[in-house]
Automatic annotation (TrEMBL):
Signal sequence, renumbered to the chain: none
Domain (Pyrroline-5-carboxylate reductase catalytic N-terminal) ranges: 2-102
Keyword Oxidoreductase: yes
GO cellular component, one term: plasma membrane
GO MF terms, alphabetically ordered: coenzyme F420 binding; cupric reductase (NADH) activity; ferric-chelate reductase (NADPH) activity; NADP binding; oxidoreductase activity, acting on NAD(P)H
Keywords: Oxidoreductase
This protein's name: NADPH-dependent F420 reductase
GO biological process, one term: copper ion import
Organism, scientific name: Archaeoglobus veneficus (strain DSM 11195 / SNP6)
């Protein structure tokens, strides 16, 4: 299976690219500039090889990565993700599209959830990508720790979608990553509950001086 990590050169995209490649998927790192994506793909491959790990990672501009993929992950900052989705909707038609996007803002010393009128970033993205199979996941995965291959963790990843088959496939993808457990969290509308966990985790992290929190349901 080919998985495009759109915006795979930064933030959550780094960890996703590395760990999906380790799990055996063919990863296509996407970026606005194809040359940057190819450079990062080479860098990620070298990181794996230095640890004696194998992985198939290539790079392309976001449109080409979308076109070549079976599944695409929108690892793009919230401020740019809707515009990116609009520009890529033809390339993503018929494909499973995973969104880890969280709309939030900072007021004073508090991060708060700031969803669009549709109710969640996932629902807004689905309204743009009408011909894609939108699934939300990975919102509560801390990017820095996830990208550190020395880290060991046990985190749960809620997965939401109105497409049961697409959700099943994404649950399999999540569960293929060592240390993650995918959980069916319901329809896409439930994404607003999951997205809202991220600012909560950040606030707890700041106030209690603990880094890179995630979630585990027990």
């Amino acid at each position: 299976m080919k998985i495009a990590v759109l915006g795979g050169t930064g933030h959550i995209g780094i960890g996703l690219s590395l760990r999906l490649a380790i799990a055996g998927y063919e990863v296509i790192v996407g970026s606005r500039k194809g040359e940057k994506a190819r450079q990062k793909a080479e860098e990620y491959t070298s990181m794996l090889e230095s640890r004696g790990l194998n992985g198939v990672i290539s790079g392309a501009d976001n449109a080409k990565a979308s076109e070549l993929s079976d599944v695409a992950i929108l690892a793009i900052p919230y401020s740019h993700v809707y515009k990116a989705a609009e520009s890529l909707k033809e390339d993503l038609a018929g494909k499973i599209v995973i969104t880890p996007v969280v709309p939030m803002e900072k007021k004073s010393r508090l991060f708060i959830y700031a969803p669009p009128p549709e109710g969640s970033a996932a629902e807004k993205i689905a309204s743009i990508l009408k011909d894609s199979r939108v699934v939300s996941a990975f919102q509560t995965v801390p990017a820095e720790r996830f990208a550190n291959l020395d880290e060991r963790f046990e985190w749960d990843v809620p997965v939401c979608s109105d497409d049961d088959e697409a959700k099943r496939i994404v649950l399999e993808i999540v569960n293929s990553i060592d240390g993650l457990r995918g959980l069916d969290a319901g329809p896409l509308a439930a994404s607003r509950l999951v997205e809202g966990l991220t600012p909560l985790l950040i606030n707890i992290s700041i106030r209690n001086k603990v880094k890179d929190l995630s979630v585990k349901f027990v």
